[in-house]
Amino acid sequence: LAAISEGLGLFKKRFYPEPKLQSNSSAQTSYKNVIRKVTQRFADLPEPLHEHALKALEVIKQLDKHKEIGLAAYYTNEYLDAPLAPRAVEELGYLNILGWLAYHIYDEWLDEGSSRYPLALAQLAWREVGSGLTNLCRGQIPLHRWVKNILDEVDISNSLENLTARLIQTEHGITIPLFTTEEDSDKCKSIGHAIGVGTVFTLGSQARDSTLDAVSQFFRHYLTAKQLCDDIHDWEKDLLALRLTPVTRAVLKQYQLEHPAITAINLESEMSVLRTIYWKQIMPEILSQAAEHTTKATSWCRDLPWQNKPEFFLNNLQQVQTAIQR
Fold first, then answer.
1. How many angstroms separate the CA atoms of 205 and 226, rounded?
2. Which of 114, 98, 109, 107 is nearest to 40 (CA)?
3. Which end of the chain, N or C, is surrounded by fewer C-beta atoms within 10 Å?
């Protein structure tokens, strides 16, 4: 068990290496302005909601080690030769931070049934995102339709996770679902991350529907690869918490194939069997899937009509690819 724990720890360190801070002073200024704008939005909230909001923001900043959340729109604008004014780019960074804050709180509620932060804070942040995007999309019918579809996908994904991604615990153990026809949802609950980039392409270069579709495909594959790596690392914790992820689903499905007569499983007594299934069969399969997603994401990213090489995005993809290969 110690060796397994150490191995998973090394995997996570490889997947989440210490970031190299961007030396671009303009990028740093933009990021500071984005965070300042979020802080100002929270300033009028009554206590204790204000305190919760600032604490949640600190968590998002810690998660955003590579500044992907706050600066995705900024770098897109740079790689298109800066067609948008800094204020518009920072507005998109602001909305992306708020979107991730809402996503993070919703995710805690879905995973744990509770959160360190009130649900009202997530609703406030998500409402601000909707309002801000409505203003930015005004008069841009294809962009408005694309953003609407993405926001729908986020909400549908959260709803499906709430309804179907939980195992049932009984006195005999956890009930193993019938996986013969059930598939993982193709919805990506973090796909909202694509909105800032697609908006810059549209407002800055009058992107066509095909470009917006390419932005969606790039982020869908990139975010799926990252999520699979997270699920690989957390599979045992997820299983004990009765969460169905692509990894825990695959482990249980294989167990079901090998033990077709068993309909409920005692995790404590069967964990060694499940670990063997995971290490020998499931982990290599999931890593292969993650690698395929990074390859597709890289292809979609390179095909976008950039004016300059999108190094920021390609470097992030390379980090995922390197972690998988190790």
1. 29
2. 98
3. N
Computed on alpha carbons and rounded to an integer, the radius of gyration of the chain in Å comes to 21
Q: Nearest 5 degrees, angle CA 291-CA 239-CA 188? A: 45
Question: What is the per-residue pLDDT for 183?
Answer: 55
Distance CA 10, CA 95 (A): 34
Distance CA 175, CA 167 (A): 7
Nearest to 305 by CA among 170, 232, 159, 206: 206
- C-alpha distances (whole Å) from 65 to each of 70, 205, 219 are 10, 29, 18
Backbone angles phi, psi at 265, to 5 degrees: -125, 135
The per-residue pLDDT for 1 is 37
Which two structure tokens, joined as six digits, stand for 243? 């969460």
Kindly state the tokens that stand for 299: 């292809």
pLDDT confidence tier of residue 166, bands split at 50, 70 and 90? confident
What token pair was written down for 285? 């399969």
C-alpha atoms less than 13 angstroms from C-alpha of 240 in its C-beta half-sphere:
8
Which pair of tokens denotes residue 206? Answer: 């009058």
Position 196, amino acid:
G
